[in-house]
Amino acid sequence: MEFLKLPKRTTGDRSYGLTSIADFGTPVGRLISILDDYSHIIDIAKMGIGSAYITPNIQQKIDLYKEYQIKPYCGGTLFEKCYQQNKITEYLAYLKKLGIEWIEVSNGTLDIPLEERLTIIERAKEDFHVIAEVGSKDCDLDMSISEWQEEIQIFLEAGCEYVITEGRDSGTSGIYEKSGQIKSELIDELIKGIDPKKIIFEAPTAKHQMFFINQIGPNVNLGNVKLDDVLTLEAQRNGLRSETFYLEEQNANYINQAPAH
């Protein structure tokens, strides 16, 4: 019986309000137990770093995610490893063989020229849904706000479904300071000129997640979420934690007010 007034959440095969989890090698048996209960609040599953390449039961894991209507894809580090070794053609064939329909194009570790990334995106989008990532894993590299805005816009105009803002699984680079502090001015400026429904903000901790929920709304797209945290995150989105308690009353952002999709 539902009797509380909660923020309106997108549901089903939604295009925003996404929870993208990071799977760093969850055993299949345990994964089945988690998905049995929580698959309805997980949209995307990233097999983190380059772990997919050495996962012995990778096909079983991919098929499992797809069975639960979750979109699996490989972390950007594997893409960059293939780029470094001039194996992009083999990588695309590998993804197709596994039945993976999404691909991440990133430059978190390597400094891949923008034009080269755009060329790869143009090639990849013939067979895949493309997600581009902006930002570096090197916490000493700092992009200006205008550079962030420009790259994100370029990737969206190039046909990427979403753009991920780098944050690492530690929350210490990209949109975060070394200390883990959120670059709030950067986030404020990004969402002024770019539709936040097209951005997936990497938010590996509850503190990071609650910032974005309060700043953008319960239907903000969040990535690098730990599997064990998906229910807590959904509670936070629904104003069922102290730090997001008054979310429904505030209801100020248009993402909060968006109808279910």
UniProtKB/TrEMBL annotation:
<dbReference type="InterPro" id="IPR013785">
    <property type="entry name" value="Aldolase_TIM"/>
</dbReference>
<dbReference type="InterPro" id="IPR003830">
    <property type="entry name" value="ComA_synth"/>
</dbReference>
<dbReference type="Pfam" id="PF02679">
    <property type="entry name" value="ComA"/>
</dbReference>
<dbReference type="InterPro" id="IPR036112">
    <property type="entry name" value="ComA_synth_sf"/>
</dbReference>
<comment type="similarity">
    <text>Belongs to the phosphosulfolactate synthase family.</text>
</comment>
<protein>
    <submittedName>
        <fullName>Phosphosulfolactate synthase</fullName>
    </submittedName>
</protein>
